[in-house]
Every structure is written in structure tokens, then in C-alpha cells.
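Data card: per-record layout.
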Amino acid sequence: MYFCVKISQMNTFKLNTLPQELVNQIAAGEVIERPSSVVKELIDNSIDAKATKIQIRVVNGGIDLIEVSDNGVGIPQENLPEIFNAHTTSKISSLEDLNTLLTMGFRGEALSTIVSVAEVSLVSKYIDSDTGAEIEFKSFNESSVRKAARESGTVVTVKNLFENIPARRKFLKTAQTEYKKILDVLYPYFLIYPNIHFTVQKDSKIVLDLKPVPNSKENSVEKERIEEILKQDFVKRMIKVFFDGGGIKISGLIGHPSDHQKRGINQYIFVNRRPIWDNGIARAVLQGYERYIPFGERVPFILLININPELIDINVHPRKEEIRFLNPFRVYTAVEEAVKKSVTGVTSYHRESDFNTTVQKPTSFVNRDMDKKIYSSKDINFKSNQSSSVQDSLLFSKEALSESSYIPKQKEKYIEEIKSVGNIKNVFQIFNKYIVVEFENENLWIVDQHAAAERITFEKLKNQESKNERQNLLVPTSLKFSKKEIEVLEGLKDFFTDLGFKYAVKNDGIDITVVPVEFVESNFEKLFDEIFALSEDASDILKELNRLRENILATMACHGSVRSGQYLHREEMLDLLKKLIACENPYSCPHGRPAVWKLKLSEIDSNFERTY
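The structure for this 612-residue chain is written out next.
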């Protein structure tokens, strides 16, 4: 029973028993957060009803209408009113039942809370009945049951979510954002139930029709279904993972080490078929990849963990999105061991020469310890006619660079110093990475060529100068994206057009047809991957475009610029310096890293304790 204590100015109080409708509306705040919460609860019920076909229909992002229809076992007519009572469930009858529970839904909260915040009707035909029945709620306490035509299973219709609670409704996002949230909820079910035929209808248009994968079973993942949903090339390269021991079984697919990325997307965890998220499991996966992918990178994975239900607590989250393990260390260790064994097995046959330390091939593996090149004197190839003394100076500069000794205290003053340079006496490139410039006024610059080029490209994009220098691609560059990402790219078309990009949006991705000339050789797949990585939820990029604009431009500038490891001719170096000096801020790259290290001859003399 819920009570409310009301304290008056007379220091007296009165206990109020809250009406059941208000109790359910309060509970709805935990269970039903938005349209996607309704979809999740109804899908759980359909799966528990042994459905092999589930249809989802949404209008206006689910705010106006959500309808979930299935061909499951149905509900007897006499039970229809009861299933909408609070905490009415066929899944459990005692606390002990929670210890062995394997169904998706179990609390009996979903339908009662949905009725308290929306208009609800349900039509169902029980498997042993000759006819179907319908229950419709005109208000929370007023419903009617009548016979209805239905071949099999159940259809639940939810209209006008939170219309009776304006304070809750105003916190809902745009229809587009709410629809993406629904897809976020649905994707795990699509993956873990390849034996179920799912269809999704958005605003009267069928956007997904996922036929059952032949010979598939529930609680399995099939590449055919994964490719159909995620539409990414990495799926073909995914590696099977397996573990069985200590009461824990692990199966599923993990990304090939060559498919690492900055974003933690396309990562799914299932425990006893229940889609959940657990940071410890995600960390264990990355630990299994240790020494096979660069530090800080992520990999896609779909992990299925089967464990004795008595060893987990599924009742720790109102929306059943998290669970608690009795012995988490054992689970995390098993995950790490399973991943490490699979990754080691697929990489063990590669020759040492396959590990390209300059990371020029997108499919090569990168080892954190191996991603460093040890330079000897024979590796340093000077491109101009330098004297022996200059070579010695540059060797010193290589060592001095590692000290990062220059930290500017007055950024504005430093910018002015850069812009007021004298005549260039000599210019060299070292390690195909840094430009060393000797000025007649006894100043020495060491310029990070990539940081400098990033700054130049960034300011060009920011000022939209690239519109006048576009390149039509003879063959469009095709990229595949998920439905959620395609929605974002559709909304970003005008933004990219202003920057000099043109692309056509398709059902499974985009075709890039026009780009600024600086981006002709860019890796567009990685470019968009890093743009999406700017926000945990890709849809937030559209919502916060003004705030993220400069971050997007900085990310793009990195992909359209002169790279580290790229040999430059003298003319190219001089052109880069000229454009850098003309920048509004030649001090740093758009990510904040210094672009120029400025030294005076007197400082170099001092390092050598030279006084003459």
C-alpha cells in the first residue's frame, strides 16, 4: 500500500492512500519511460507467448500509436480483464520462482502501467478457443470485453501515450528521435531471435521485413540475419566465439581485429536470451583483444551468455536492462578467455610481416607495442641538399621533439610571433612527419605537417570555401549504414552540401557523388565512423548540431589533410607554411594539439652550453 504524509502549518499530518491509477502512473515513470519502453514490454510478452511472427506498427515515433501483433498462444477470454491488474503475472507465484526465471517479462507491471498512461485495446485468440475476444479501456477503471475476429495470437494497440500526463509528454523527443529509440530496443530482438519473422511499419510504410532464417533457432545468432540488420561489411569477417565451463556457456560472434573502430557501436550482450548491458563484460571483451587492436579502439560483438538463473538477479532494473551476477569475476574471466582464444586462433597464422607498423593497409593488425618504428641513421632520408652540420642538427631535433619542451604561456602572443616571421632560409622534412624551417632571423620552426594541414582544412570548411572546389567522383563511393544511422545522414544532407559534399540516401546506406578536392583520397567509412563517435547516441548529432558543428569539422579536417608519413616536395612544404601562417589560428590543430614548435638559435646554443 502506498501512503502520502501531508504536514500542515499546525504541525498535524494526515495519511492519504493513493488511488490505484496514480500508483500505476508513478510506477509508469520507472517502467514506461517513452514509446520504446512500451514496445519492449509488448515484444517481451509476444516472445513469451511463443510467437513466430511479430508485427510492430508505429505512428509519429510511437507517440500517437504503437501496435504489436503476434501469432502466439493468445489469452483466454476470461483472463482478459485480469491481465491488466497491477502485478498480475503468469510467470511467477513466489520469490523462489525468480531464481529459475527464463522468460522475458515477469513482473506483471507493463500492461497495468501502460493503461494508466495511454488508450489501450487488446484482441486475442487463445490457442484452445474457437473465437477471439477484445478488451478496450475507455478509462483506467472502465473497460469492456466482447467477442472479436482473430485467427491466432494477440494484438495490443496503444494510442496517445502520456496524453493524460502533459508533464511527461512534453519530455518526449521528436518523432524521429523516438523512432530511433524504438529501433535501439528492437535490434537486439532481431539478432537473438532469427527464427522469428519480424516486420516494422513506420507511418504506414513497411521499413523492415525480416523473414526467419532457415533452420535457425532462438538463442542463436545467424550471419544472414545480422547482415540484413546491420548492413556492414565487417559482419562477413566476424569470428565465432565459444566457451563452456563452470556452469557458463558463451557463444556468438566477435569482430575481426582489423575491424576496430573508435565507436562502441554494434555491441550486444545477451544473458539467458535477455538483452542487457554490462560494462564489465564489455571491458572483458576488449581485454581479450589486448595486443591485437590499438589502445582505445572498440570492436563489434554479439555475445550470448547462458548461465544458471540461480546465479544472476534479473530484478535489479525497472526496465530489465541490467542484471547482477552472483560471481561477476567468473563471468568476466570466461568472456575474456573465450575472446582471446578466438582472436588468437584467427591471427596465429599471420606472418610477422603482416603487421604493418605504418598502418597503411586498413585490414592489417596493429599491436600497441609494435605501433612504433625505431629509426636508425639509415632510415633518415633527407630530401634536399643539406650539409652535414644540418643533418646533425636535425638528429638533435628528433631527440628534442620527444621532450615537448615548449608549452606556450600566452597563446595570442605566440600566434602573432608565428605570423610575423622572417624570410625562409631553408626547409626540410624529417621522418615524413615534421617540417623543419630555418629562418634568416635565427629562428627554427618544427611543424607537425598533419596538425598544420588539419588547421588549414578546418578553417576552410568552417568558412565554407570548399564549395568552390568540388570534385565529381567518376564512380560513387557506396557506404552501408544501419537504419538508425541512415536517419541521421538524411537529416545531415544540407549540412554536408554546404561543405561541398553530395550523397544520395538509399535503403541500406549512401552513395557519395561529390566531395571537396581535399577529400578525394579520404577513407569515408572511417570519416563517418568518427563523426558518429562524437556522441554516444547518433541521433544526438542532429539534435545538437550547432554545438557539435566544430567537432564535426575538426573530425573531417583530420581526414582531408596531409597525413603523417606522407612525403612532401619543397614546394608543397612552402605552400603548407604559407597557408598555415594565413590561418586565423596557426598555433594548433582544431583538436588543440600544437602545430608549431618555435625555437631560437640562442635556445639551441644553450642546450649545448655554447657561448660563442
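Known properties of this structure: The two ends are 91 Å apart (CA to CA). DSSP finds 18 helices and 24 strands in the chain.

See the next section for split statistics.
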